[in-house]
Amino acid sequence: xxxxxxxxxxxxxxxxxxxxxxxxxxxxxxxxxxxxxxxxxxxxxxxxxxxxxxxxxxxxxxxxxxxxxxxxxxxxxxxxxxxxxxxxxxxxxxxxxxxxxxxxxxxxxxxxxxxxxxxxxxxxxxxxxxxxxxxxxxxxxxxxxxxxxxxxxxxxxxxxxxxxxxxxxxxxxxxxxxxxxxxxxxxxxxxxxxxxxxxxxxxxxxxxxxxxxxxxxxxxxxxxxxxxxxxxxxxxxxxxxxxxxxxxxxxxxxxxxxxxxxxxxxxxxxxxxxxxxxxxxxxxxxxxxxxxxxxxxxxxxxxxxxxxxxxxxxxxxxxxxxxxxxxxxxxxxxxxxxxxxxxxxxxxxxxxxxxxxxxxxxxxxxxxxxxxxxxxxxxxxxxxxxxxxxxxxxxxxxxxxxxxxxxxxxxxxxxxxxxxxxxxxxxxxxxxxxxxxxxxxxxxxxxxxxxxxxxxxxxxxxxxxxxxxxxxxxxxxxxxxxxxxxxxxxxxxxxxxxxxxxxxxxxxxxxxxxxxxxxxxxxxxxxxxxxxxxxxxxxxxxxxxxxxxxxxxxxxxxxxxxxxxxxxxxxxxxxxxxxxxxxxxxxxxxxxxxxxxxxxxxxxxxxxxxxxxxxxxxxxxxxxxxxxxxxxxxxxxxxxxxxxxxxxxxxxxxxx
Length: 656
Fold this sequence. Notes:
This protein is mainly α. The protein is built from 31 helices and 5 strands. It is 62% helix and 6% strand. The radius of gyration is 30 Å and the shape is elongated. Residues 584-593 and 640-656 have low confidence and may be disordered.
């Protein structure tokens, strides 16, 4: 069954008494109809239809606005453009009003003036103003709601391409949205809103944060004419792309003052979902923001993407996941994501037959889709073994970078289930060279029995210099663990030098992170030296500033883990819980390898606070995640995590 036609606009012949302008009076019907057709979802009523109905009505009625509105209604139009053309010397002035045909209300008065041979430019200017008037009402779905003041371009081509991109963006059709926004920027390189959206689309479609940062930076430089709301969103999004949650306060204020602002609710949810854990905010707040966004605009697809992930990873809620997947599938143009959602549902909640069918179907998946599918399979804990089956469903990719990503995901999946021997076996391949030192140090920090020789080979004095960020940071931490003060000091000095190089190159984001990471490692060393209170001050300062994406997010997760373990050890369970608690359901922003052992620590923290039900749930979560752990390992870990024990000289911070 075909959908309802798009809202129509009828351009009526322009009035005027100058015979010299007669050609333009009727010519405006053709020119403006051509310009407006398809822009922002509008449908221009065919010019011949309008002229035929107009001629019929003029035979039986005198010319008036009401007559013209009757013509528009007879043509099936929702809107009407009624105007006049007047000559002023060698120039022409075009003036018109946009009407809502149903209510006969004026939506906007517009005009343009120029030389007769510049009439095409005037048509473009009039068309832009018509779109501003119609789209500003926000009532004519499926037309997008547009803040009139945010349309800062004078190019009709740019505006039409931008509005086309908006329609694709709302449906998660990022490939076609990117193409449309790129055409808008090509037509007007100063069009701030198009630059902004192009950057956002590249993040969604290609995960290219560097390209997005450049585009959003350009948008901000051209944001002088944007209204304050748009500038606030742009600044918050730019900070988000740079890995900083600093826009959260402004966004919270924005949704408080404008609770009907869908875009602000969505962006608030997006930042909280990805970076909220680094700001010590429970993921429940991102879920609330996304839910509000879809309640305000149920046809906007982007919030559903993360709501589905939350239903899987944070709640293990099959009913809610099924409903969200069904709704998203009916709205989105992104069939690949819809397919992945449905396969993940079968793997997480289906029967053994469903599992076999889903695993057979993923043969055609790209490595990125395979990793994202595995990422869904986190809760309930029993489905983590399904994620392992996904990751091992075919041979390791030939491309080195892809092989590293798959092996890394497989290592942390096994580690999160207490399968240390299998996790360590994952590191024996050549592709694991890129992350072996980091991976071993994580297990070491968890109090797991890592072969000392392997750790020394990767992070000790004889290890090769690493270009990897985490390998570098954990190498410095390991020097503090083992009392190698000169190596530790040299590592810190190297970080400070790197921060200065970033600052001189204009990379303030990298400089900020590197300085904060160095402070965190100073705090960690103080803890290792028996000065936990002093160490906690520096670690907390670092954790609030060493934020970011990917490896930076993982180091922030380590800082939170160190702080939680330190405070529990010091007997300050309330502060310990603060740094351990916000991890709930965060599978997408790194740190998921810590969850089961954080549950063990949380159980002790909650018990100390007298929150026995929470303590019971945390213990149960640890037990469920480690139900297939290596023999004897769970008992060893539970013993190691006694908060009364001080950290020995060459053991992980929380005790071993």
